[in-house]
Design brief:
There is one protein chain. The chain is built from nine helices and 22 strands. It is α/β, with parallel strands linked by helices. The protein has three domains: 72 residues, Nucleic acid-binding proteins (OB fold (Dihydrolipoamide Acetyltransferase, E2P)), CATH 2.40.50.140; 195 residues, Vaccinia Virus protein VP39 (Rossmann fold, 3-Layer(aba) Sandwich), CATH 3.40.50; 144 residues, OB fold (Dihydrolipoamide Acetyltransferase, E2P) (Beta Barrel), CATH 2.40.50. The strands form four sheets. It has a seven-stranded mixed beta sheet. Strands 18-17-16-19-20-22-21 form a seven-stranded mixed beta sheet, sandwiched between helices. The two termini are 42 Å apart. The mean pLDDT is 94.
Length: 459
C-alpha cells in the first residue's frame, strides 16, 4: 500500500476509527499513514484536528463526530475529557472487555510472534468504586492559595481539581474534600512543582473493601513533621469517618516518586485490613497490594482452582511475592510454599499475616528473585510450580532462566503489562516451554490496563 505523505495530509480531516491502541487511543489510517486520536471508539466516523505529525504517525483530537460508534456511551464521569485516568470511560463495558482481549492478542502476535490462545477477559466484579488505592497530587491556586487535589491531564502535569471520582469509594471524595478545606484553614500549603515549594505534595488513601476503613498518608515536602501537619492529621483522624490511622511520609526530593523513604504513624494504626480468600491481610502505606481487591480475589481463586484440578499438594515457589498474597491465598492447595521478596518491610508484614492467619506451610525469604533462585539451583532444589508476579517491566533473562531450571512442571506468570509478558513468553518458548494459554482479568475498568495469567508448561 502506498503510504500517504504526511506533508499533504490536511490538519483537519474526517476518518474512521479502526481499533484502539494499547494506550487506549483510537487508530485511523490515511493511505497507510497511522493517526492516533484521543477519546474515540472503534467505528466512530469523526472529523479530527492533527496536533503532531512525524514520519511514522500523527496525533489528533476529535472536533466533530459525524457518526458515533454503537459502542460509544455517555461518559459516567463529568471530568472524563480533562482527566487522564479513565481512557475508556466513553465505551460500554462489554466492549471494553473485547478491546482488552484484542490488546493482549495484538501484543502476542507482534512481540511473541506466534498465535497464543487468549481466553475471554474475566470482568471485574465492580466497574465503579473499585479502586482501593487513591493517590492525589496536591497543589494550590496562585492567588487565593486554595488547596487543589486531583489527577493530571493526559501526558501533562497540569492538575485537574477532582471533587468526585466514580472509580473510587464515594467516602474517599469526602475525605479528600475535608483535607482540602482543613489544610487551607490550618495554613498547610500545597506543593508547587515548578518552584519545589509548598508543604503538602500528595494524599494517599488505602481503603478496605472488607470493612470500609481508610488509612490516610500525607506526603510532605519536608524531612520532619511540622505542627500544622500534626494538627491536620489529628483533625482527619478525629473528624472523618472510618479512619484507621493517619501517617506522614517525608519526601523533600525533586522527584516524580510519590513516596519518600520514611513514613511514620501520627494517629491511630499504620495499616488497614483486607480480606481475600478467607484470609485477613494487613496493608500499610507502602505495601504493594492490588488496587481492586475483588478482582484480585478472582485471580487468586482462578489460579488456586487450576492448581487443585491439576496437582495434588504441590511444592510452590512464589516469586516477586510482595506480602506473599499469592502464597497465602494458595496455601490451602499446596503442600509447601516458598515466597521470595526483596523489600524487607513487605517480608516482615508477610510473616505477621502468615502467623495471624495460622498458616504453617509458607516460608518467606528476603532477597532478589534471580539471586535466590541461583542459590536454590546450586542446592539442587526443585518446585512443582513457580508463580511469578514481577513488576511492570517484567523479568530479567537471568530470572527466567533460573526459574525455568527450578520448575518441574508449570510456571504461572501473572502480569500487568501485555508487552513485557509477550517478550518473556517468547524467551521461554525459545527454551522449549509450551505456552498453554493466557487468561486476562479486568483489574482496572474504564482504563486500557489489563492483568493476565499465563500458564506455561516446562519441558
Amino acid at each position: 500500500m502506498q503510504i500517504a505523505d504526511k506533508k499533504v495530509i490536511p490538519d483537519e480531516i474526517t476518518v474512521r476509527i479502526e481499533k484502539l491502541s494499547n494506550l487506549g487511543l483510537g487508530i485511523a489510517k490515511v493511505d497507510g499513514y497511522v493517526i492516533f486520536v484521543e477519546n474515540t471508539c472503534p467505528d466512530d466516523i469523526v472529523k479530527i484536528k492533527l496536533t503532531k505529525k512525524n514520519k511514522n504517525f500523527a496525533k489528533a483530537y476529535p472536533i466533530e463526530f459525524i457518526e458515533e460508534s454503537p459502542h460509544r456511551i455517555k461518559p459516567f464521569c463529568p471530568m472524563h475529557k480533562v482527566c487522564g485516568s479513565c481512557q475508556l470511560g466513553h465505551i460500554d463495558y462489554n466492549y471494553q472487555l473485547q478491546i482488552k482481549k484484542e490488546i493482549v492478542e495484538d501484543a502476542m502476535r507482534s512481540i511473541y510472534g506466534y498465535e497464543i490462545k487468549v481466553n475471554d477477559v474475566i470482568p471485574s466484579p465492580k466497574v465503579t468504586e473499585y479502586r482501593r488505592k487513591i493517590q492525589y497530587p496536591i497543589s494550590q491556586t496562585k492567588d487565593s492559595k486554595r488547596i487543589l487535589a486531583g489527577y493530571y491531564k493526559t501526558a501533562s502535569h497540569e492538575l485537574v481539581n477532582i471533587k468526585h471520582c466514580p472509580i473510587q469509594p464515594h467516602y474517599c471524595d469526602e475525605i479528600i474534600e475535608f483535607i482540602r478545606q482543613t489544610a487551607f484553614e490550618l495554613g498547610v500549603s500545597g506543593y508547587v512543582e515548578k518552584t519545589h515549594k509548598g508543604l503538602l505534595r500528595h494524599v494517599l488513601i488505602r481503603s478496605s473493601a472488607y470493612n470500609n476503613e481508610n488509612l490516610v498518608v500525607l506526603v510532605v515536602n519536608s524531612d520532619k513533621i511540622q505542627e500544622c501537619t500534626k494538627a491536620l492529621a489529628r483533625k482527619i483522624y478525629t473528624e472523618c469517618k472510618n479512619i484507621s490511622g493517619v501517617c506522614v511520609n517525608y519526601n523533600n526530593q525533586k522527584t516524580n516518586f510519590i513516596l519518600g523513604k520514611k513514613t511514620e504513624v501520627v494517629e491511630g494504626k499504620g495499616f488497614i485490613e483486607e480480606k481475600l480468600c478467607g484470609k485477613i491481610f494487613k496493608i500499610g502505606a507502602e505495601t504493594f497490594f492490588q488496587v481492586n481487591p475483588e478482582s484480585a480475589e478472582n485471580i487468586f481463586n482462578y489460579v488456586k482452582e487450576y492448581i487443585k484440578n491439576n496437582f495434588k499438594k504441590p511444592e510452590i515457589l512464589d516469586a516477586y511475592a510482595g506480602i506473599a498474597a499469592f502464597g497465602i491465598c494458595l496455601s490451602d492447595a499446596a503442600g509447601k510454599i516458598t515466597s521470595v521478596e526483596e523489600v524487607e518491610a513487605s517480608v516482615k508484614l508477610a510473616k505477621e499475616i502468615i502467623e495471624e492467619n495460622k498458616i504453617d506451610n509458607i516460608e518467606v525469604f528476603t532477597g532478589d528473585t534471580a539471586e535466590f533462585c541461583g542459590k536454590a539451583i546450586k542446592n539442587g532444589i526443585k518446585y512443582d510450580i513457580s508463580v511469578i508476579d514481577p513488576p511492570r517491566k517484567g523479568c530479567s533473562e537471568e530470572s527466567l532462566e533460573n526459574i525455568l531450571k527450578l520448575t518441574k512442571q508449570t510456571i504461572i506468570y501473572v502480569s500487568c503489562n501485555p508487552a513485557t509478558l509477550a517478550r518473556d513468553l517468547k524467551y521461554l518458548r525459545g527454551k522449549g516451554c509450551e505456552i498453554d494459554f493466557v487468561q486476562p482479568f479486568d483489574m482496572f475498568p474504564q482504563t486500557y490496563h489489563i492483568e493476565n495469567v499465563a500458564i506455561i508448561s516446562v519441558p
